[in-house]
Amino acid sequence: MKIQKVGVVGCGLMGHGIAQVAAQGGHDVVVVESDPKALETGLARIDKSLAKIAEKAVEKGTPKEQAEAARAAARARLRGALGLETLADRDLVVEAIVEDLDAKKRLFATLHPLCRTETIFASNTSSFPIAEMARAGGRPRRTLGLHFFNPVQLMKLVEVVRTADTDPDVAAAGFEFAKACGKTPIAAKDTPGFVVNRLLVPFLAEALRMVERGDASAEDVDTAMMLGCGHPMGPITLADYVGLDTTLSILEGWRSRHPQEPVFAVPESLRAKVRAGLTGRKVGQGFYRWQGDKRV
Ligand code: 3HC
Fold it and tell me: CA 280, 19, 164: angle at the middle one, nearest 5?
């Protein structure tokens, strides 16, 4: 089962990156957005990122024409669209829409009659059960999680998430797709947060609780984990980077499904920031101030 034609639904933070690495990996890609403005913004981000990658390749010794040809070829394999019906002939459709379980279930239910019966459905969800989406999408044997990390162009991991129903050939095709995108896949079960977020999100929450208790300042917690453990970003910077709204919604979702689990408790400072609209990097202010991708 070879994946050649890929559809990505959502051209935001994650979707634009998934569409891009899929095109760089040689796939024919359609990325769908419902809002023309969001599509334009996402495609512009892809153009900027591909240009940066070509520039870095030249710095590392790739001949300029070769780097430019690779950039142009990847871009030519990718197109934007505004309607889901453009996904009818795809081998794989990856959803990267808003982190809302009902919206994802509705999307898969809509896609089911539109797509070929062979089309594999994948979700890039951070934290929702793949099995629930698979049931709503009507093809549980052909549904799996393909969880990419932010920024998709730079982070090398993809979690390939199998439910009890996922066909082993579908999971294997997911592995091959991730590798073709230049990523390292790992196998994960359909448990809350899979591997990475199950460890990462409670860690981010505990860092915030530490600051709330007055044990250390946010800056010192971040410095401690960078210099003491070699993390590229401290946990509070990373929470801002990922999005405080995303972090909050992951924790709240888990909390409602697993109320007894203490590490899923929501820090009050996180709620307060989101309530105030200070959701981190994307709005320029969270626990820190941001200019573009940089903390200031
Ligand atoms: N496309 C192409 N190039 C890019 C790029 C992109 N999207 N983003 C950055 N680059 C380039 C930069 O321009 C820069 O180029 P230069 O060296 O020529 O200036 C180079 O890549 C490195 O970028 P930075 O200067 O920003 O590099 P840093 O060394 O600061 O690394 C980082 C940035 C990779 C984000 C690093 O800080 C990091 O690894 N942080 C942790 C990220 C992380 O943990 N992500 C996972 C989040 S959890 C998640 O996603 C799960 C979700 O479900 C919640």
Answer: 90
**Atom 18 of ligand 1, nearest CA residue:** 56
Q: Provide the pLDDT for residue 285.
A: 98
CA of 232 to the centre of ligand 1 (A): 9
According to DSSP, the residues that pair with 5 across neighbouring strands are 28
For each successive 10 residues of the chain (296 residues), what is the average pLDDT? Answer: 95 97 98 97 98 97 97 98 97 96 97 98 96 97 98 98 98 98 98 96 98 98 98 98 94 93 95 98 97 93
Which residue type occupies 51? Answer: A
Which of 123, 126, 127, 249 is catalytic? The answer is 126
Q: What is the pLDDT of residue 1?
A: 78
Helix or strand run (H / E) with residue 6: strand 5-9
159 assigned to active site: yes
Provide the pLDDT for residue 40. Answer: 98
How close is the Cα of 151 to the center of ligand 1, in Å? 6
Within 10 Å of residue 8's Cβ, how many Cβ atoms?
Answer: 32
Walk me through the domains of the chain, giving residue ranges and CATH numbers: 5-189 (3.40.50.720), 197-286 (1.10.1040.10)
Please report, as a single letter, which amino acid is at residue 104. Answer: K
CB-CB contact of 70 with 54 (8 Å): yes
Answer for the pair 46, 75: CB distance below 8 angstroms, yes or no.
yes
**Ligand 1 atom 37, closest CA:** 232
Ligand 1: atom nearest CA of 201 is 54
How many angstroms separate the alpha carbon of residue 158 from the centre of ligand 1?
16
Q: Could you tell me which residues are beta bridge partners of residue 78?
A: 29
DSSP per position, 196-223? HHHHHHHHHHHHHHHHHTTSS-HHHHHH
Choose one of 154, 229, 279 to mutate for the ligand 1 pocket test, by most ligand atoms within 8 angstroms of C-beta.
Answer: 154
